[in-house]
């Protein structure tokens, strides 16, 4: 390839050449035309003399040889007419930066094809330039119009360029190239030019005249822009582009792959070839946003492709199709979303009868109740929580024991202690026994003591007894009342039972426990040890009694750092400031105990060594890989994926259990797995082996099922316990000798920047791994098998992440208000051992203000006071309170219980969810919440009369009978919250079908509306999808925050093809750490009218401007919520809906404040009568729109599912 450097012309200057000419020929002497098509000769020359006359003479001589080979008289110039030009493609123009570029194609049949390119500031100048280039090049005129100095200085000004173009003596670029269409031209044209085709020389002026007639035809054709870049590309530009697009080929290809899937057209093509100069030419042909070609030239094919891709990306950037971050887009996302916000989602219409009835009720409200209710609500005093609220915690019998009784009981306690000393000890020798005197002395002389106990030291069972026995020996046993908190109910119950057994006592004498759904309280108020969960303890602190009568508060397993532990530590720190007689004992494993000492101002501590046999650690290495028969790829995938791979984990655990069973002496195996899904899969795999006794332990299981882990296996079988991190410290299984550690746990973690919760497998901390290892070797030396490498262990975090840093804080902030009064949430939570981020606290406050639980000053509202004692999420609690006033309590309690339980109601359906969908659709084809409600009620009815029939229903529905029994027990607890906050006198009334609070319990659309009023979450269905700047014609779901959402496979709305309403409500979304897509399990389609009446926010009527008004007199009904939601309707309907919503919710707010203890019973009764009229109208309206959700206009049931997996 001949380059400008051969003629002494700087290569950088060659990039500025405005005009160049390409000459294509067919060598008629060669009999092999296809071979000629691969030849490529290009000669570049700057307009003007290079100053090197010798080199210029060589160039002219070379051109003469080219003309001779074409058999053309050099004194004659053959120029075709414009018909020939038009035939080849004519004159085309395009906008290129600040100039226009014109292409002129000329063909001499059977002989030669010319192409001349010209540039100019206008289209006409560009056309003129192209013609001049053609004439000057084929005439071979040369001159020295550009001086040598200007060339040497690499300067070519626009003025000098334009003047050179207008001079007939200027010399421009000359080239030779074999065109792609030469084969077609050669085969279709005659070997000799016909007489009629002979052309006369045409001047440049003549060509311009003909060109103007071709302009209209040229505009009709889609222009194709050709960009080329050779090996001498400007290196600075090349480096700059690479910084922006380090992988240009991948960036370009990925974008067009997405674009082609959306448009279903081929928009990007590539080709490459090796030219005659042995240089690679790589070409990208783009058909979007308009046709263009980009050619890169280099000695390396990869490098030429990179250059071509860079040219294409730069062009797309100049076209405005790449944003500031380097992302390509077909539409501007911000502008598109702004436009979409203003579009109506759906229309709302009411018949004339409903409108008139609404207007009548609104008029009555305005004339009779509006002012009175406004005055009463303005007098609300938020200084104190109503004293009549009940926390629901079981209490001791309150009576004042006589002095004589206390003395006799002290003697009885001492006598029982002396008797135990004579009996065989039922407890194993434990290291903590040697430290008993020191512990008792520290507790007696300090308000706070930190006990650091290694695994197996006996702190959980012995410390409460040591303290109590010390009081007993001093005949002060009745003055010692100890409360011991445990993080889990199984721990509280099992430890209480164990201590009672060691003391030769029955539960309920000195030792007792209290957990959810179960309690066995000590029979005496004075002289007892009570074990309870952290949640129960915190609810005790809500009651007026608080810590009254408690002398010692022992917080066990404090190192787990769950949310309730941190809150209790804060409250305990405040309690000792006002109660100097209270003693706090914090018991922790050797996991960062200094944190607790520093938190309590340097509290004294004592380290108790544990008693365990040696436990050897086996990390994943080549030997273990061979043992497990796993490939290197599987091992790598299991370790490198965030949180591992569940399939590989299941495979590794199953093989390791079988290997231990075949190669190790008898002994139980404890397997640590991340979550219930993995436990269930491993259990299913191991159940195939008859010599294994597999027992899982998880919070989802009943207490009886969990207690199986302490049982002895049947003869000839090895016990295998499948557990989560629950078994790290809280549970001790004495016969465990082998531990298999996956190194994982399932945790919900919060992204503080966007507030999204992600539930994924996470790697455990090094401290947790050490705790897991310590579970082996309680009775003899043990082994721990870590299914990850030593290097992975060394890279783990040192300590677990506190729960307060991993979750949303709405419940924490709401409950903190009951402890802290008017203290700001930031101020209260900043006093935790490790405070959460301020932005997370503020987001929780904003959410509580949005649902109406807190006012602008962060004080509890009437609603906030009611729901602050609920154990359910504040969003569900709000819906439960509203359900009472909308008279649909029973179904909402069921929905709230199911959403709060997190129970696996349909286990065993890991892959094909279609049977679950089809079963639920029998009860509701458009709502998971309604379907589960009526399924549960059908099961409960069967349960009352025939247990077998209820179990058969669960078998038919693929549900879990035990899970439904658990939900039923939890349902009673949730319903009891409505009694505790004084909405109903008895919980049993809430489940009575004929009770007034269930008058509209059969109105499905009303139930969905009340649920929506609490959760305030909506999914919006769209007929398009905007992803990575590309607008696709595929349906999509987005949340109100703009996150793309997917509905889980067990939902009746999974891959639904028909949406009678574009709006769906749901409780919560969960995100995966691998992507930003929200996964939602339960959804309900809701009518637009339901959203307008129940979605939290402000509803207003927006009238169109003059030019936007139409003949229908429609207006926009705008709901300002988390995002604006627009509906279209006529003005009268819009006004009626807005007024009805205002009156309805003002009445509900009045009831929330006054119910249970009204200040004016006469007014309360009158408002109740008006409210019943509103409910009657609302019931009829929502029944109608709700029917349209499930049935089409012909009365046929709508299709409930789309595609299946």
UniProtKB/TrEMBL annotation:
One of its GO terms (cellular component) is cytoplasm. It comes from the Eukaryota. Keywords: ATP-binding, Helicase, Hydrolase, Nucleotide-binding. The keyword Phosphoprotein does not apply. Residues 652-820 form the Helicase C-terminal domain. One of its GO terms (molecular function) is G-quadruplex RNA binding. InterPro entries: DEAD/DEAH_box_helicase_dom, HA2_WH, Helicase-assoc_dom, Helicase_ATP-bd, Helicase_C-like, P-loop_NTPase. Residues 440-609 form the Helicase ATP-binding domain. It holds the Pfam family Helicase_C. This is RNA helicase. It comes from Laodelphax striatellus.
